[in-house]
Amino acid sequence: MAKTKKKAAPKTAKKVTKTVAKKPAVKKVTKKSTPKKVVKKTVAKKPAVKSLVHGNASANEQFYLESGKVLKNVKGLADELEKMPANVYSHHVNSERNDFANWIEYVFKDAKLAGKVRKAKSKDSVRIEIYKYLLEKR
Q: Model-level pTM?
């Protein structure tokens, strides 16, 4: 028997794929617009009238009278002025200073009432000015 040579199966050609790098897209250069300036408007806040009418001063801003009493709010000052001895009043309000007006202006941030208190000539007129102001702000 004669040996016959078997033909080898034809080899399939390998597919070669090339990886082609993509060119980066060319961006158009445009003129950048300048950002608009943001202007913040600062509005002066009105002092909180509620704190003057209904609120109390913080613990370190309470008013200590020479007599030892402690005042927490403007209404308390007006109430205390009615029974305050003249020597205590003159200690806090005299030609050199007006502690009550300063307290109202700097703690309660109310220059209008502080001005009225500074102009008042007696403790009764101070008390009346405070009560009128508080009634007006209700």
A: 0.62
